[in-house]
Design brief:
43% of the residues lie in helices and 17% in strands. By secondary structure, the chain is an alpha/beta fold. Helix 10 runs antiparallel to helix 13 and helix 11 runs antiparallel to helix 12. The protein starts with a strand and ends in an 8-residue tail after the last strand.
């Protein structure tokens, strides 16, 4: 399969807490198919499984992988797969222009080369279940949504993944419900870039990823633009539809949440402080420390901590995580406080790092 090349893109001028009622299956009357667009930077461990899962989706008429200057075997693996997946193409992205996030540069290149009426933006560490795109198109048809996104079932294997990742998603669910996002009367908007299906004409009308060249939370920005433009969006849990294991090392996990968490939790020092104060069980821990002098305080502190832990267990279940993950509650709270503080420091310095690149937060997005 030949490799397509493109010049760097020009800088742009501008810039889950409750159950969701999923529409019942219906006969599809869609045309034009789906182009799946996968940005890939050093994804040799996961890219094959992702592409094979995309190739099993009958609605996907082409798969465009954009190799974002990988230094590993990502491109070679894609070329090999292209010999038997005829719908697969490989594009090579140039170094992103100043002010561009690498992923947004790659996604824009992929969209420019797509030929379908629907665009599916997904990540290289994602795997789609059988019938995933059928389900997404059904939801789009039944709700008249221009954008459909799923929050993938998160696969966690190491203890630190089981501690931090569910904790983060439980905190996010407190801030923003699926019901609010899906309500056209609500200003709430969100999406997950691990599975984001959008009608191409709407994508182009709102400016696509070019409009959000510098945004590290490009999925939320795109969903917000679609909703502000008067189109419906639909966001829901992806259990049984799509799954992902985002991070395979502690360092990658820490770097990933440092890049995103401050913005996800409001993007201001006060909101970050309130979030940390609310999430960390500081009252039970202070009472336990008082137990050094007053034994009755030790008992009261432990009881308060157990109650916080049990409440976390109920949140885990509501967000479709195993109740047994409550055993990670205390390390989760400390990890969460640490990464939130690290994320705040990065934004205060005006720089975040991701996959070997450094991005400025001194942008319109970073100042919101």
């Amino acid at each position: 399969m030949p490799i397509e090349h493109d010049m760097p893109l020009n800088p742009a001028a501008q810039a889950r807490s409750e159950n969701v009622a999923v529409p019942s299956p219906a006969t599809l009357h869609t045309t034009g198919g789906i182009t799946a667009i996968v940005p890939a930077r050093n994804e040799e461990l996961v890219i094959a499984a992702c592409l094979e899962s995309l190739a099993k989706q009958s609605e996907i008429t082409e798969i465009v992988v954009v190799n974002d200057q990988s230094s590993d075997n990502t491109a070679a693996i894609v070329r090999d797969l292209a010999t038997r997946i005829t719908r697969l193409r490989l594009l090579e992205a140039q170094e992103p222009p100043p002010g561009w996030v690498g992923k947004n540069n790659a996604l824009t290149l992929g969209a420019r080369n797509a030929t379908s009426d629907w665009l599916l933006f997904t990540d290289a560490d994602v795997e789609l279940e059988e019938g995933a795109t059928t389900r997404a198109l059904q939801i789009a048809q039944e709700t008249q949504a221009a954008l459909v996104s799923f929050s993938p079932r998160q696969i966690t294997e190491k203890w630190y993944e089981k501690a931090l990742i569910p904790f983060v998603y439980c905190r996010l669910a407190r801030r923003l419900s699926y019901a609010a996002v899906n309500d056209p009367k609500s200003a709430a908007a969100a999406a997950n870039g691990q599975f984001l299906l959008i009608r191409r004409e709407i994508y182009e009308a709102v400016g696509g990823h070019t409009r959000f060249a510098s945004h590290v939370l490009e999925d939320v920005a795109l969903a917000t633009a679609v909703k502000v433009a008067g189109h419906r969006i639909w966001f829901g849990p992806g259990k049984g539809i799509v799954c992902a294991r985002m991070y395979r090392t502690f360092g990658a996990m820490w770097e990933g949440w440092t890049k995103n968490l401050y913005r996800l939790m409001g993007g201001t020092p006060w909101k970050a402080f309130r979030e940390g104060e609310s999430a960390f069980p500081w009252i039970p821990l202070v009472v336990i420390l008082l137990g050094i002098k007053f034994p009755i305080a030790m008992f009261a502190g432990v009881l308060l901590l157990v109650l916080r832990q049990m409440n976390y267990g109920s949140e885990l279940v509501r967000n479709q995580y195993p109740f047994a993950f409550i055993i990670y509650y205390i390390p989760a709270a400390f990890l969460y406080a640490g990464v939130l503080a690290a994320s705040y420091r990065s934004y205060a310095r005006g720089k975040v790092q991701w996959k070997g690149r450094e991005y400025s937060t001194e942008t319109r997005e970073g100042q919101k």
